[in-house]
Structure formats: C-alpha cells, structure tokens
Amino acid sequence: MEIIIHFLHKIAPIFLAHGIVGIIAFCVRLYMQGGKFRKQTDETGKVAIVTGGNTGLGRETVMELARRGATVYMACRSKEKGERARKEIVKRTGNPNVFSRECDLSSLDSIRQFAADFKKEQSQLHVLINNAGVFWEPRRLTKEGFEMHLGVNHIGHFLLTNLLLDVLERTAPSRVVVVASKAHERGQIHVEDMHGQDFYDEGVAYCQSKLANILFARELAKRLEGTGVTVNALNPGIADTEIARNMIFFQTKFAQTLLRPLLWSVMKTPRNGAQTTLYAALDPDLAKVSGQYFSDCKLAHLAPAALDDQMANWLWAQSEKWAQIAL
Ligand SMILES: NC(=O)C1=CN([C@@H]2O[C@H](COP(=O)(O)OP(=O)(O)OC[C@H]3O[C@@H](n4cnc5c(N)ncnc54)[C@H](OP(=O)(O)O)[C@@H]3O)[C@@H](O)[C@H]2O)C=CC1
Ligand SMILES: CC1=C(/C=C/C(C)=C/C=C/C(C)=C/C=O)C(C)(C)CCC1
Fold first, then answer.
1. Residues noted as catalytic
2. Does the beta carbon of 238 lie inside 6 Å of ligand 2?
3. Where are the transmembrane segments (predicted)?
4. 3-state DSSP call for residue 304?
5. In whole angstroms, what is the distance from residue 48 CA to residue 127 CA?
6. How far is the CA of 52 from the centre of ligand 1 (A)?
7. Tens digits of per-residue pLDDT, 94-104?
8. CA–CA distance, 217 with 211 (Å, rounded to integer)
C-alpha cells in the first residue's frame, strides 16, 4: 500500500502538469479558431464556383456550400485530385450537384477554356470564390512567363473573374469573394520588377500577390458599383492546410512530427479557416456591402498600401495587358 501511495505522489504532479498544459492548449485552440459563420441559409438554386476546391480552405468551402444545397463548380488544376475531392464531398453532403472541372490558373488558355465550358453548362453564377493560391514557390514562371505567385494568385483570378463578369451581372445580386491574407500588410507592388527578375524572394512575391488580390477586389468593386455584383476580400487566418507544402522546412520530420502537433493549438482547422469566406459569400447582411475586407467574420483594417486607389488603377491596366483582355 505504501509503495502505491509513494508511486502516486511521484506521478500525480506529472499528470497535473500535463493536464494543466493540455487545458491551456485547448483554451488557446478554442480562442484561435476565430469567428464562425453561424447563420443557417438555404442556397438551393444558387450556383457557385470555388477555385482550388479540392483541398484546404477551398474544399471546406465547397463542402459547406454543398451542404446548404448550392450547385458548386470546383475549378481545380488537377483533374484527378478534383474528382477525388468531388466524390468525397458528394458522399458526405448528399448533394449530387457538385462538379469538378479543370482550371489551371497558371495557364490563360486553361482559364479561358474553363470559363467557356462553364457558360455552356450554366446561365447563372451567384458566387465566384477566388480561393486557389500558391505560397513560398521557388522562382517559377506560369505558361505565359509570369512569376508564379503573381500569375496564379492574381493574374489568373483577374482573367477568370473578368471572363465571368457577364454571367455574374446577369445573375445579380451576385458576389465575388477574394481570399487574400493578412500577409498583404507586408506587401509592396514592385512596379519596376513585378515578376521578380532583378530580385526574388518567396515571401516578398507571396505578399505582393496578396496585396494585388485586395487592390483588385477594391478596384473591381468600384467598377461594378450599381450592377448588383459585390466584391469583397478577406483574411482566413492561419489554417493547417497544404499551403506551406513548398517550404523545405515544412516537409522535414521535425516540422511534421514535433512542430505540427505543437502548433496544433494556434492554427485554425481548415473548416474554421473557411468561415470568413462563407461569411463573405453567404451572409444576407452583406447583400449590399462591397469593396470591404474581412477577418474572423467581421470588418478588418487594411494596410495603407491596400488603400492606394492610384495603384489599384495602375494594377488593373497592367493586368488587362498581362491577361490579354481587350475590354
Ligand atoms: N492556410 C493559411 O494559413 C492561409 C491561406 N491563405 C489563402 O487561402 C487560400 C487557400 O489556401 P489553402 O487552402 O490554405 O492552401 P492549400 O495549398 O491547401 O490549397 C490551395 C489550392 O489552390 C490550388 N492551386 C494551386 N495552384 C493552382 C493553379 N495553378 N490552378 C488552380 N488551382 C491551383 C491547389 O491545387 P492542388 O491541390 O492541385 O495543388 C489547392 O486546391 C490561398 O489563396 C491562400 O493564399 C491566406 C492566409 C493564410
Ligand atoms: C503546419 C506547419 C507549418 C505551417 C505553416 C502554415 C500553414 C503557414 C501558412 C502561412 C500563410 C499562408 C500565411 C499567409 O498568408 C510550419 C510552421 C511551416 C512548420 C510546422 C508545421
């Protein structure tokens, strides 16, 4: 008996310490999951497109839209990954109106093909969600020679949105949702070297592309005033998705087996990371709100660079040339 009591005395503090750490980690995690979009809406009859819908935040966004009855098109760069995710979403939501289509945002031809095929299948589009994104890419170029972050995150979505504007306007009230990031605060538009030819840094390129996302959203909102099409940008927060896949450090055993569980309490789940996207796409209170930026399901502050209207205008004109749009 004495041995047992002695043993309990030894291990009790260890259990207690672990318990306290566990409770703190759990509370931090609860707090870090951020704002939730809790309103129940019925999206039956609505048509939505989500780029990069096969994984991460995009997949969770498609899942929730499908649960609410919408017809959802997943615009994916990989046919196989898209189809696999689609089958899983249909199975889990019971909504058969989820479609996966090829759309490689690093190829203008692929984007044009996607938009043309979509318009042949659907005459309406209520929500376009520009979600797909690349992060921490080594210097690589898109098919047309654009730096990959700028090309996929901004130029690809710029072209896609412009190609779908006629159907969005016809469907109005409709919405464009741009998944940007708090990383825009560190961004700068490098007017003289947009494609990182003279100087390249993965973080600089990503932040520039996310700033471009917001300048684009604000400029488009201005151009669409009075049409019934709203445009808003958002920061999803840090979520545990595949976004960091290109970081060599991310792939190490140390990061995956030790750091990832340690960071468990401070990162959002993909489902919670998708909440602000769903809020911007679906909240009835935002029906007439346009040109804004949200984080954790509420209005958020933009960095001064994102409020530079002259730069937004310059970027728009430049993007028209890159995307070869004759307007
Ligand atoms: N997770 C986070 O902490 C944060 C994310 N964000 C933003 O959220 C968005 C979603 O990221 P997240 O879900 O985390 O990342 P994931 O890497 O998990 O998902 C990114 C998606 O984009 C797709 N994609 C990448 N390149 C292309 C392309 N050329 N054409 C079409 N689709 C492409 C990917 O396709 P595939 O699977 O085939 O590679 C994938 O479906 C991004 O815009 C990101 O910048 C912003 C702030 C923080
Ligand atoms: C899971 C994991 C990581 C994830 C990082 C993520 C998910 C970063 C995303 C940042 C973005 C995209 C910010 C701004 O837009 C680390 C820290 C690399 C290493 C340990 C394991």
1. 206
2. yes
3. 12-32
4. helix
5. 5
6. 6
7. 999 999 999 99
8. 10
Q: For 239-265, what is each residue's pLDDT tens digit? A: 999 999 999 888 899 888 888 877 877
Q: How far is the CA of 257 from the centre of ligand 2 (A)?
A: 14
In short, whether 244's Cβ falls inside 6 Å of ligand 2 is yes
Predicted confidence band of residue 327 (pLDDT cuts 50, 70, 90): low
Question: Could you tell me if the CB of 78 is within 6 A of ligand 1?
Answer: yes
> Which domains can be identified in the chain, with CATH numbers?
33-323 (3.40.50.720)
Global pTM? 0.93
What is the best residue among 131, 135, 266 to mutate for testing ligand 2's pocket, by most ligand atoms within 8 Å of CB?
135
Residues 212 and 268 sit within 8 Å (Cβ to Cβ): no
DSSP string, 112-174: HHHHHHHHHH-S--SEEEE-----S--S-B-TTS-BHIIIIIIIIHHHHHHHHHHHHHHH-SE
Q: Is the CB of 183 under 6 A from ligand 2?
A: yes
CA 101 to CA 82: how far, in whole Å? 7
Contacts of 216 (CB under 8 A, 6+ apart): 154, 157, 158, 161, 178, 312, 315, 316, 319
CA 68 to chain centre: 19
- Report CA(19)–ligand 1 centroid distance (Å): 36
Question: Considering every ligand atom, which ligand is closest to the CA of 160?
Answer: 1
CB of 181 within 6 A of ligand 1: the answer is: yes
Count how many residues are written for the chain. Answer: 327
* Chain-centroid distance, C-alpha 90: 21
Question: What is the number of other CB atoms lying within 10 angstroms of the CB of residue 296?
Answer: 19
